[in-house]
Amino acid sequence: MDVNLIPRPLLFLVLALLLFNACKPAAEDAATTHTPRPAVVTVETVVPQVLQDTISTHGTIEAQENVTLSVDFTAVVRAVNFRENQKVSAGQVLIEFRSEERELAVKEAEARVSEALARMNQTRELFDNRGALYARNAASLEEFRAAQTDFQSARAGYEQALVARSLARHQLTKTELVCPVDAAVTSKNVRVGQTALPGVPLVRLQYRKGKRVLCYVTEKDINALRVGGEASVTTPAVRGKTYSARVTSLGTEADPQTGNFQVELSITDADNLLRSGMTAGVLLEGLTYPRALVVPESALVDRNRKRLLFKVVDNKAVAVEPVPAATFSDTVPILEGIQAGDVVIVGGADQVRDGSPVIIAEPTE
Predict the structure, then answer these.
(1) How far is 298 from 334, CA to CA, in rounded Å?
(2) Cα–Cα distance between 74 and 69 in angstroms, integer?
(3) Of the four, 1, 183, 186, 313, which is 20 to 30 A from 122 by CA?
(4) pLDDT of 305-351, one tens digit each?
(5) Contact at 8 Å (CB) between 93 and 120?
(6) In the chain, domain spans
(7) Residue 90 host element (H or E)
(8) pLDDT by residue (tens digit) across 48-104?
(9) What is the pTM of this model?
(10) Which among 171, 157, 178, 181 is positioned nearest to 222, based on CA atoms?
(11) CATH for 102-172?
């Protein structure tokens, strides 16, 4: 057929239909190609648990004859349960403290957390807004970086407020001064109604049957310890044996050269195997988190200079930017960002994006 005899409008219609049919499969293929495949992931349900922090350090064993006890907080004395020249036993409660002042400190710390959270949310909103404007060339790089700096500063302030609240809550649990060793009271410097101050001696004990360990901890760890707290001690000189110990003194000033704080422990040497000058490995009990929300370290992934974890909601991955505490071995306590009962991705998190579909793998036996 001579195409010149086909009317021009009909010719255009035929060409358009041919072009549409040729392009339709390619468009359908492209749409199919860009549909994300569900990632196969493993998950865990977040369950509150008791988490005991531990602090590892090294020290030196020394001979011990006297122990001076003080506290590392400020509190009013409620009761004194000993007298001079009295024999006292390890674990005996020597002094009881009032808690009203520290309850107020917890409330103030909680208020600072709320203020810091509000500021962080405000700066986050401004940062996101500036980022969107900068992507459209509607804001300068300087404006974007200034908003980023403000948000990072606000987030650091929020994390510090959370830590301060945890410490205030921990201080609230310090209602007693416990005798760390079997001893005799040689000096009593405390009375009911007195305000005990950090580092000020309250009682002096005479103890001739044991040894002491001097060690150092960082400024990050000193406030997680308490006088009377438990510890374990090992030494290469006595292989296979672990000694129980108690904290008898906490330094109130940092070493000017190292910036670390001295911690003194008493330990019982029933076998008389320890000698002055021996080195010791020390494991101290720190803060206790009674209802900690913990995830495996593998659940956290790095994305765009952010540390994220993913929850599973309606078979989709939902990104969360949590506020983690210090890492405990291969687990991380999460201070903010998740709740008990959340289902978090612990395997395959590096394969998902916010909003992408997931398939939960069946647990293996």
Answers:
(1) 13
(2) 14
(3) 313
(4) 788 999 999 999 999 988 887 655 577 888 788 988 999 999 888 88
(5) no
(6) 39-50+292-360, 102-172
(7) none
(8) 888 777 889 999 998 777 788 888 788 899 999 999 888 898 889 999 999 888 888
(9) 0.47
(10) 171
(11) 1.10.287.470
